[in-house]
Amino acid sequence: MADHDDIRARAEAEILAADSAAALKDIERAYLGKKGEVAGLLASIPSLPAEERPLVGKNANLLKQAIQAALDARGSELEASSLDAERGAGDFDPTLPPRPLDTGSLHPITQVTRELEDLFLSMGYTVLDGPEVERDFYNFEALNIPRDHPARDSQDTFYCDDSGDFSLRPHTSPVQVRAMERLEPPFRVIAPGRVFRHETTDASHEHTFHQMEGMVVGKDISVGHLIGAMKTLLRGIFHREVEVRLRPGHFPFVEPGFELDARCPFCSEGCSVCGRTTWIELLPCGLVHPNVLRMSGIDPEEWSGFAFGLGLSRLVMLRYNIDDVRHLLGGDLRFLEQF
Ligand code: FA5
Which residue's CA is the closest to the ligand 1 atom numbered 7? Predict the structure, then answer.
């Protein structure tokens, strides 16, 4: 018992005198460590007479608890006084709440894409993806775009090799062809994605922008179905009636073809976004040309369809009142942080 009292008195004195967490650790090791004094006491038990062993064991454990409690108490004291010291120094207040984390947000194009995907999924469409580096066959040939069509001009298309076979896709329409190859009619698909054009940029033209292709192939598909789908699309995104106009448009892969324009929200008399026309070209569309169906192995006598190529970047501009398409992929945080 004398041993215990002696050890306890020494330990408590040393603990009280300790002035750092490191010093406390050393004391803990000396008394409670594997080779510490308390361990020595416990190790001596087997050599004691049997009747003494329980009491010595119990006291050794009480001693251990007492030293641990003294260590903990002194540890808390030291920690509190070091916080006080830091606070007193005036350069850091550890009690202040942390700064809010920068969590970021989804890009407006991603937000609108996801909304459109949900809308079209609810109408039974499938969402498809296609390669950004695309072959000539899918970009043009299978879309009934002959060799001398202006869309093939190197002014518009970024070619990837000298053969002219591979280019960065200038539109999402090649995914139509991939859909027709892979799916049995009837089917409905959309394909949002990035497209690239070698052209001069301005408030409504970027060299890299987003489109969303749509295609429906079924029995007796008519212009009425097409217009119904376009109206649903616009209502779903704007949650209000948007003033639109439909005019004839020419694309080699649709017949008849249309241009659906939306009224420019930025002006009433013409501005740089609408090219001074008060209308923004948004949604070219039409009935799928029989040649296109035939080239992909679908019998145009049996099946018909419609297709559209939504200018997704322009839709995002209209939705969020963004007056220059170049903001979208410009990477300026001051712009992006608004979404
Ligand atoms: C096409 O790309 C056709 N593939 C669309 C199509 C699909 C027609 C299916 C018929 C059936 P166009 O080149 O007009 O068409 O582009 C489609 C839309 O993309 C335009 O209405 C416009 O909203 C948008 N767009 C075109 N060029 C740019 C550009 N440089 N920057 C931003 N948006 C653009």
Answer: 309
Place of tokens 């050393």: 26
Give the DSSP H or E segment for 248.
Answer: strand 244-248
pLDDT for res 81 = 85
Tell me the C-alpha distance between 314 and 292, whole Å. Answer: 27
The H-assigned helical ranges of 239-303 are 290-295
pLDDT, tens digit (0-9, with 9 covering 90-100), for 265-310: 888 899 988 989 999 899 999 999 999 999 999 999 999 999 999 9
Q: What is the pLDDT of residue 154?
A: 61
DSSP class of residue 268 equals: S
Q: For tokens 């539109």, name the residue.
A: 171
Kindly give, in sequence order, each residue whose CB lies less than 8 Å from that of residue 132, ignoring residues fewer than 6 positions away: 168, 169, 193, 194, 195, 196
Q: 197: closest CA among 252, 237, 238, 139?
A: 139
What is residue 66's three-state secondary structure? helix
Which residues in the chain come in under a pLDDT of 50?
none
The kind and range of the H/E element at 236 are helix 223-238
Lining ligand 1 with CB less than 6 A are: 171, 173, 197, 199, 205-206, 209, 211, 251, 254, 257, 281-282, 284-286, 307-309, 311, 313-314, 325
pTM, rounded to two decimals = 0.73
What tokens does 313 get?
A: 């970047």
* Exposed / middle / buried, residue 289 (Cβ in 10 Å: 0-12, 13-18, 19+): buried
Report d(CA 180, CA 282) in Å as an integer.
24
Round to whole Å and give the CA distance between 259 and 284.
4
- Predicted confidence at residue 64, as pLDDT, reads 93
Structure confidence at residue 146 (pLDDT): 81
SS3 label, residue 303: coil
pLDDT of residue 1: 53
- 266-284 burial, b at 16+ Cβ within 10 Å, e below that, comes to beeeebebbbeebbbbbbb
Taking CA atoms only, the protein residue closest to ligand 1 atom 25 is 311
